[in-house]
Amino acid sequence: MSTDSSKIKGIDDLQAIKERVLKETSLRNDGYRTCITVHMGTCGIAAGARDVMAAIMDELEKSDRTDIRVTTSGCIGICVQEPVMTIEVLDGESALYGKLDDESARLAFREHALDGKVVTQLVIGKGREQITG
Question: Which residues of 15-48 are buried (b: 16+ CB within 10 A; e: fewer)?
Fold first, then answer.
């Protein structure tokens, strides 16, 4: 990448930025075992992402776990699947869940974040924020 980091000159620069960000946010580096990202773009909020976030925060508080990070992001471009949430588990599967509501978000939290079991009927993508099919 060029010395002037404000100028992206091509796909190689973008790939380098992606790799750096993934390394910096890796669960191995931050002390957390699980990361839950509730995607809260305008479309997600309109579809109920705030209710999903409230449910996740309630479940986290009830769990007394300190190794789960909950964060937000903006739109990931799949508005028809909103609200969506990504769950990443250290040394486990990551999944993108879609068309969530309060109860399905709680189920994904309990099964995937706490027990490491992907809730396949709610999955719209595998890996880190990558939609399948």
Answer: eeeeeeeeeeeebeeeebbbbbbbbbbebbbebb
Q: Which of 102, 67, 62, 106 is nearest to 88 (CA)?
A: 67
**The pTM of the whole model exceeds 0.90:** no
Q: State which H helix or E strand residue 35 sits in.
A: strand 34-39
Q: Could you count the other beta carbons within 10 Å of the beta carbon of residue 105? A: 26
Strands 95-97 and 34-39: unpaired
Q: What CATH number was assigned to the domain covering residues 33-126? A: 3.40.30.10
- CB neighbour list of residue 56: distance below 8 Å, 6 or more residues apart: 36, 38, 70, 85, 105, 106, 109
Residue extents of the structural domains in the chain:
33-126
Question: Contact at 8 Å (CB) between 55 and 102?
Answer: yes
Q: How many residues does the chain have?
A: 133
Tens digit of each residue's pLDDT (9 = 90 or more) over 66-112: 999 999 999 899 999 999 999 999 888 999 999 999 999 999 999 99
d(C-alpha 42, C-alpha 109), whole Å: 23
